[in-house]
Amino acid sequence: MWAVARRRWIGYAMACEAVAGALMVTGLATGFGGPVQFSSFGVLVGLGIAQAEMSRRIERLRRWMSGQTHINVTSVWYLAGAFLLPPAWVALLALVLYLHLWLRVWRHVRTRPAHRFAASTAWAMLSCFAASAVLTIGGLDQARLDTAYGVLALVLAAAVFELVNVVLVATGIYLYTTSRSPADLIGTWEDNAFELATLCLGGLAALAFVHQPVLVVFVLPPLLLLHRYLLLKQQLQVAVVTDEKTGLLNTAGWHELATREFTRARRRGTGSGFAVLMIDLDHFKRINDTYGHLTGDEVLAAVAVAIEASVRQSDTVGRFGGEEFVVLLPATGDTDVLGIAERVRVAVGELTVAVGGPLRISGLSVSVGVACYPQAGNTLDEVLRSADAALYRAKDGGRNRVAV
Fold this sequence. Notes:
With 404 residues, this protein is α+β, with helices and mostly antiparallel strands.
C-alpha cells in the first residue's frame, strides 16, 4: 500500500476503516437499533455465501478482467439486512460477506490487492450502517412491508445505501487515480442500471423474508443470471482489445491504458512519470520460414508469457503486431526501467519453446528500446517514438541488447 498508493488515499482509507469499525463495535455494544434476530442474520449470511460460491468463477473472471468494478451483487443482501437488522449487524453482515469474497475470490486476483479490499469493505460497512440507521432513527424499521410506509422504508434504505456508497467509492477512486471521468468515479449508466436491478432484488428479498421466508431462495436464480450477463458483457469488451494469438492487449487496448497513465502522470506533475519498453523478437522471420507460421505463433505466445512474467503486476504488456511487443511501466524511473528491461531480455534468452514432438526452439533473443516520460517527450506519442528509435539503435548495435 505504501509503495503504490498516495498518502491522501491512505489517510482517507484508514479513516474510513477506523470509523466503520468504531460504529460497528459501538452499535453492537450499546444495542443501537434494538435486539437482533439471529435467525435473520444467519439466513442472510448463508444466502450471501451461497450466492458467492455459486458465482465464484464468474466473479473471479470479472475481477480479473476489470480491476476497477463498480458493481457488487452482494448489495442485494445488504438492502434486505438494512430493513431486518440493527445498523451494527448490517455492517457486520457486510464484513462477513466481504471476508468470504476475499478468501474465496478476490485474493486470487492480482488487480485486487489487500489494501483496496480493506477500503472497499469499510465503504460497504459504512453504507450498510447508514441505510439501516436512517430507518432506525426515522422509526421506519418497524414498518410493515405491505404498507405505504414499508415501501417508503425500502426506497429510503436503497437511496441512502447507494448515495453513501457512491460518495465513498468515488472519493476513494479519485484519491487513488486522480481520475475525474464520471464513468471512472461513479460507473457508467449501465453499471448503475445493474446496481438498481440488484437493489430491487434486495427489496423483493426483504419482502419475501418477512411474509414468506421460503420464497427468498427464488431471488438467487435471477441474481445469478444478471451476474452472468455482466460477465458476458465484460468478455465482449475484453475480446475487442485482446490479441488472439498471445492473449495480450492489442494496440488499441494498450494505447487506451497508456493514455490514461499519461493523463495521470501529467496531473501529478514534477517527479511523476512512466516508462515504455519497445521489444522486438530478433530474427523472427527465420522461425516462420523454417518451421511455419503455426510454430511462429506458438513462439510468440511463449515470448508473451516470458515478458509478462518478467515485469511487475502493475505493468501492462501489449502486442503491437508482428513480432513487436510494448510494455507500460507506471511510476518508474530511469534506474528501475533498465533493470526490468534487462530482466525481460534475459528471460527470453533462456526460453525453450516446445512446439510438438521432439522439436524444441531455443536461442531466442529480443532487442529492447527504453523511453521515459517526461525525459523522452512531452506527449505519449513522442515517448513511443523515442522508445521505437531506441529499439532500432539496439537492433543496429547487434541485437539482443537494451538501448535508451
